[in-house]
Amino acid sequence: MWKDLTLDLTFPALDPDDAVYEPRSSRLLVRGLGENDVDDDEEDCESSARLLGMSFMNRSATQRSSASPYVRQPPPIPANDGALRFQTFPALDPDDAVYEPRSSRLLVRGLGENDVDDEEEDCESSARLLGMSFMNRSATQRSSASPYVRQPPPRSCSPPSARTMIVCVLFLVIVASMTMVLYFLPGCIFSKTGCPKQENKTSNGTDDELFPWAQYQLPRSIRPLSYDLTLSPNLSTMTFSGHTVINMFVLHNTKRIVLHSAHLNITKAAFKLGDGEPSDVTILENKPMEQIAVKLSAELKAGQHCVLTLDYSASLSHTYNGFYNSSYIDLEGNKRVLAATQFEPFYARKAFPCFDEPSFKATFLVKINRKPEHMALSNMPKAKTTHLSSDLLQDEFAKASVNMSTYLVAFVIGNFAAVSKNVSDTLVSVYSVPQKKDHTKYALDTAAKLLEFYNDFFEIDYPLQKLDLIAIPDFLAGAMENWGLLTFRESNLLVGEHSSLVEKQDVASVIAHELAHQWFGNYVTMSWWSDLWLNEGFATYMQFISLQILLPQLDMGNLFLEVRFRALDQDALNSTHAVSTGVNTSEQVQEMFDSVSYKKGASILLMLNASLPGDQQFRKGIIQYLKQFSGLNTDTDDLWNSLTEVEVSSQSPNVSEMMRSWTFQKGFPLVTVSRKGDEVTLKQEIFQLTVDSSTYSSSLWTIPVTYVNDSCGLAPECRQVFMLKTKSGTLKVPETVKWLKLNYRSTGFYIVDYGNEGWAALADALSNDFQALTQEDRASLIHDIFALSKLGRVSFRQVLSLLNYMTNETEASPIREALLQLNHIYQMLHKRYEQGLCARMKRYILNQYGALMDNQTWDMEESVSKQYLRFALLETACDLGQDKCKQHAESMFKQYVESNGTFQIPGDLQRVVFRVAAQSTEDWETLLTMYHYATYDTEKKNMIQGLASTQDAQKIVWLLNVCLNGKIIKAQYLPLLFRTICQNFAGNLIAWDFVQVNWNQITQTFPIGSFSFQSIINAVTFQFSAESHFNQVQWFFSSVRESGSQLRSAREALETIRLNQRWMERNLPSLRKWL
Ligand SMILES: [Zn+2]
User: Fold this and answer.
1) DSSP 851-868
2) Per mean pLDDT, which of 399-403, 622-626, 1026-1030 is the most reliable?
3) pLDDT of residue 11
4) 535: CA distance to ligand 1 center in Å?
């Protein structure tokens, strides 16, 4: 499955570790309103305070505590000075708009209409209502207005006498007791045979009989061999019926068969043992566990074959998982419907009863009944079509030639157009809705090249006859690697001829990732979700490696470097987890789709490859692994053992010994360097932003420390390796060496502290000649020194001292990293309303990078690294309000609007231009109209980010509502919308309220724990730093559900808020002194 790795690489999206917002409300109230005596530079800070005034000031502690009618009351927050309350927002009288339980519906009523005027009107009314809900609902208002507050019943009758009361109560108690006794005693008590013993059994809660299994993972006594699936979707009623035949093999004697089923109405079940006659059986269901069971009268014996046949019906899902419905508007304006699937990690059970765990591999024969005007696709090529009636056809697909986990099964029914070509013995096709057929060519060419590459690289041919890639109009997961039928979000597969290379890089990355899964994941599959990284870490690693070789013009190196930096940032939190870690519940499984499995997984594979001598051992090892475990399931140790077995050189480290230290303990090491003459001492300890030494003081890694120094230079042959396996170690360098740089090209997953002298020597070296180090090394020094400042190991003066060389810097990676980090600090100051420092930081950034910003072109640009560079520079310039940048963006937008589609904004600059345009009401509306008519999904995505950059609270609320309800903007973009909205101050506060108020709807669309869910929680909380916000977030997660506070996202959010507080305490004096 694809996780958008760039979502948290965007500019100036803040890194969760850094951003701080501490509303010292009373100060804000005094300063923020009614004062205009700040200079121009300070106006930015001022404007945010105005917004704050609008969205925050009016919510005093008591008001705020009533903000969400869906949740219990949060702990009290210190009250503001309420003098200016209610002055900045058009307050509604509580009687004007009663806050109904259906508030979310009220808020968006009518927003589905396409008429823009109507939408605006609704937008206004929604915002008015939300204004009511967000800002003006004081405790007293709410208690009198809200229907949630239970009103006492009218008391018109006189009270009964005491005697009557006592008699009535006694009578009621006796009747109730007898009813309860009869109700709770099982019927068997009164039978001759009595009750069965109940050891090891659990109540199913839904059926009268006890469900014979009580664990999340299924029993191992039965193994499915093959499935015959017949599905009959009805795209008019949005329902489907199914017929599933499962052939099974008995591994251990048992009297029950337990498998998965969710939301299926099973109408008939038959069981057949060996060659015997089928007989009807009763199905027990445990709905909370999404399991069904057949209890048999006679014991099945190991070695027997049996068949279970099930008929069922269900509704097509309205979410993004299981067998779900989707729609789009065709060129004639007609709504077209389709049905598609997304089964990873455990949603196949919503389409057919099955053993829905990755280790239960089987073969599949799929038949799909469809209308003549539709087409159907599945994992295998179509074998035949049968006419069932004049209006119904049945497509039968070839029986799978491979054993496959259930999460990889897929089918799609609808209208699609395709382009195809043959690669080796495989027919590669790219499908889209018919009107987007022109956007599929790049994907087809790229997929064809990648398929050849992987066939060659893994020395195992792709095993199926066909490979389809299909763009689904509604698709949450970015992309999914279903064997033979890869599904994609449209923006991740479709690009036009004029699309920029950065946009093509995105598409190529997703295809490379999903294709790599055909080997890593589909061919060899992790046994359980604990080792999800074997799928996702590998596919992420291969997406970079394959494209670096195959399409070097896409410049994947820079992107991979940034992925490693962000992986380190995330892994520095105490709430992180080991790469391979035990998971059980569905939330825990969902949470495995995170930065650690994807980014850290890919990063440690790079480190391993870089530390092996030669460039073939790694590849040989993974080929051996794929061949040895072909068609099987594995765990992390299987991979390390395969790589250890092919060691070809005596210099090779013991892979298993080294890599176990990186996969079975959480976090990563900080390596500190101290030098005396020619002797260099290296020490390792855990790098952890929240120190928890009691638990993790014993962490120890086998670190392949690489280093270069000025005595040799930058060439790869100058690189030396030192294996640091213990707490400390020493190495020798010539005494004349001036500087030493560890972690050559940042291929290792660790951070280095060089000590005061070491840092000074490196800063000097860069000041004299910035090309003394490679650009990856320069970028990694910048990343590391900011990370160390978070840890309190270096002063901000040292950070600035290193950055001094940057006026000469020309490469994208170091500049992007420095801008990202400086933007974080700017945003922190901005959100703390530190006007003076905010202005000084802005001046500092514009002084350091102003010349580079001015030198950027706004024309079409061919080089990806130049596109990356100018995007970072120009977005920062425009965000900081640099006049030249804003004027350029405004005039470009004007030209774009007036050209009537003939003038194209370069793809890499669209977001910059749209974000500037969205600041004016008129242009925001124009952008919204253009969004309706835009055909390219990449362009639509940029427009959403533009629209979401507005500082207008009403528009922000409107956007969130239409997106959550999938009107106008598809709900799949909600995480992106949240992230963009939260970049501005008011937006962040509105978004957090919105999440609380709409929690149920959000978690229905984005399952708790899933990466979209993680992304939303992260986006709305990572900028908080006040104690009151900490309490609020903590209270909210403990109130929403029993396990809420156990969610990793919740722990991460709370830890981040604490870190934000600490960062400011540590660095504010230093910033005041040195900036
Ligand atoms: Zn994946």
Assistant:
1) HHHHH---S----HHHHH
2) 622-626
3) 41
4) 6
The count of other CB atoms within 10 Å of the CB of residue 435 is 15
For the chain, the 3-state helix, strand and coil shares in percent, each to the nearest 5, are 45, 20, 35
Tens digit of each residue's pLDDT (9 = 90 or more) over 734-786? 999 999 999 999 999 999 999 999 999 999 999 999 999 999 999 999 999 99
Q: How many CB atoms lie within 10 A of CB 681?
A: 13
Quick one: pLDDT at residue 347? 97
The pLDDT of residue 1071:
83
Positions marked catalytic: 514
400 pLDDT more than 90: no
3-class SS string, 495-539: CCCCCCHHHHHHHHHHHHHHHHHCCECCCEEECCHHHCHHHHHHH
3-class state of residue 660 by DSSP: helix
More confident residue, 631 or 62: 631
CA distance 429 to 196: 58
Q: In sequence order, what are the residues at sequence separation of 6 or more whose Cβ sits closer than 8 angstroms to the Cβ of residue 388?
A: 369, 394
pLDDT tens-digit readout, 522-562: 999 999 999 999 999 999 999 999 999 999 999 999 999 99
Q: Over the stretch 806-853, which tens digit does the pLDDT of each residue have?
A: 999 999 999 999 999 998 888 777 767 788 888 999 999 999 999 999
- The answer to whether 481 touches 517, Cβ cutoff 8 Å, is yes
Tens-place pLDDT, residues 926-936: 999 999 888 88
Per-residue confidence (pLDDT) for residue 1023, from 0 to 100: 79
Rounded to an integer, the average pLDDT of 456-478 is 94
Choose among 31, 28, 36: nearest CA to 55: 28
Backbone angles phi, psi at 876, to 5 degrees: -65, -45
- Residue 1075 and residue 844 in contact, taking contact as beta carbons nearer than 8 Å: yes
Strand order in the sheet with 254-260: 254-260, 291-300, 283-286
Residue 845 exposed, middle or buried by CB count within 10 Å (0-12, 13-18, 19+): buried
Beta bridge partners of 249: 223, 305
Ligand 1 centroid to 598 CA: how many Å?
8
Separation of CA 226 and ligand 1 centre (Å): 25
Q: How remote is the CA of residue 24 from the centroid of ligand 1, in Å?
A: 43
> What is the number of other CB atoms lying within 10 angstroms of the CB of residue 847?
10
Tell whether the model's pLDDT for residue 56 goes beyond 80.
no
| Structure token pair of residue 206 | 């839904």
List Cβ neighbours of 456 (8 Å cut-off, separation of 6 or more).
none
Q: Are 638 and 629 in contact (CB under 8 A)?
A: yes
Instruction: Classify the C-alpha dihedral 82-88-93-97 as positive or negative.
Output: negative
Ligand 1 center to 36 CA (angstroms) = 52
What average pLDDT is seen over the chain?
82
Q: Is 922 exposed, middle or buried (0-12, 13-18, 19+ CB in 10 A)?
A: exposed
Nearest residue to 458 (alpha-carbon basis) of 629, 643, 619? 619
Nearest in space to 462 (alpha carbons), one of 411, 519, 408, 414: 519
Query: CA 272 to CA 289: how far, in whole Å?
Result: 26
The answer to whether residues 493 and 479 touch, using CB atoms and an 8 Å cutoff, is yes
Q: For strands 466-472 and 279-280, give the pairing.
A: unpaired
Strand residue runs (E) in 479-636: 479-480, 485-489, 525-526, 633-634
**Residue 6 and residue 13 in contact, taking contact as beta carbons nearer than 8 Å:** no
Task: Give, for 307, the enclosing helix (H) or strand (E).
Answer: strand 305-315
8 A C-beta contact, residue 518 and residue 488: no
In this structure, how many other beta carbons lie within 10 angstroms of the beta carbon of residue 757? 12
The 10s digit of each residue's pLDDT in 483-523 is 999 999 999 999 987 788 888 999 999 999 999 999 999 99
Reading the block at residue 166, the tokens are 């006592």
Residue 19 has a pLDDT of 27
